[in-house]
Design a protein that fits this description.
heterodimer, A: 116 residues, mainly beta, 11 strands, globular, B: mainly beta, 4-stranded antiparallel β-sheet, 12 strands
Chain lengths: 116, 115
């Protein structure tokens, strides 16, 4: 069974440029998460989808970040415009059900973003 | 209070020895789950082991076991017979059903295994 797929693995852009990250979850997983991981820290949730509905986006900086999950499968996370402080690893994860206390989240390899 | 506290920024262990990585947590939710993930230098978060708050037995998965002490709110990861490939960052995380329907991670512990 294929795992969570993310692309690109690495991205280097100049500040004020737009950037987009793509995620394909494990087949059959209804819940999809985007996390931000700063250097030396654990991942922090940006947004969670149940099928195509964003049910928790309270930590998403909506002035510059946007996300979508068309047809409840693939998802795209966008930053426009990027700032120097956005340099980090962006992780996508998926799970079968929505119960955080019991449902294992499986992560993709992440996209390492560098903003110059 | 921090939901997840990992007090060891780094740990060193020799190959074939056992090592314990500490994790304490804080929650008022009676139903929760504790997860450990491994993150090698490649960046991917790899799921290792899960312990539910109502589980009577400590979880085990191969060389990994979880020393769950509910009253002390601790969920330490024990790796037996360390291997060079175990060198990585290890994150403890809690999943709660009330209020936060996602995982909250600690800051991680870097484990280095020497020959």
């Amino acid at each position: 069974e294929a795992g969570v797929v993310q692309s690109p693995r690495y991205k280097i852009i100049e500040k004020k440029q737009p950037v987009a990250f793509w995620c394909n979850p494990i087949s059959g997983h209804n819940t999809l998460y985007w996390y931000l991981q700063n250097l030396g820290q654990g991942p922090e949730l940006l947004i969670r989808y149940e099928n195509e509905e964003a049910v928790d986006d309270s930590q998403l900086p909506k002035d510059r970040f946007s996300a979508e999950r068309l047809k409840g499968v693939d998802s795209t996370l966008k930053i426009q415009p990027a700032e120097l402080g956005d340099s980090a690893v962006y992780l996508c994860a998926s799970s079968f059900r929505r119960g955080a206390s019991t449902d294992t989240q499986y992560f993709g390899p992440g996209t390492r973003l560098t903003v110059l | 209070a921090q939901k997840i506290t990992q007090t060891q920024p780094g740990m060193f262990v020799q190959e074939k020895e056992a090592v314990t990585l500490d994790c304490t947590y804080d929650t008022s939710d009676p139903s929760y789950g504790l997860f450990w993930y491994k993150q090698p230098s490649s960046g991917e978060m790899i799921f290792l082991i899960y312990q539910g708050s109502y589980d009577q037995q400590n979880a085990t998965e191969g060389r990994y076991s979880l020393n769950f002490q509910k009253a002390r709110k601790s969920a330490n990861l024990v790796i037996s017979a360390s291997q060079l490939g175990d060198s990585a960052m290890y994150f403890c995380a809690i999943g709660e059903n009330s209020g936060y329907s996602t995982l909250t991670f600690g800051k991680g512990t870097m484990l280095l295994v020497s020959p």
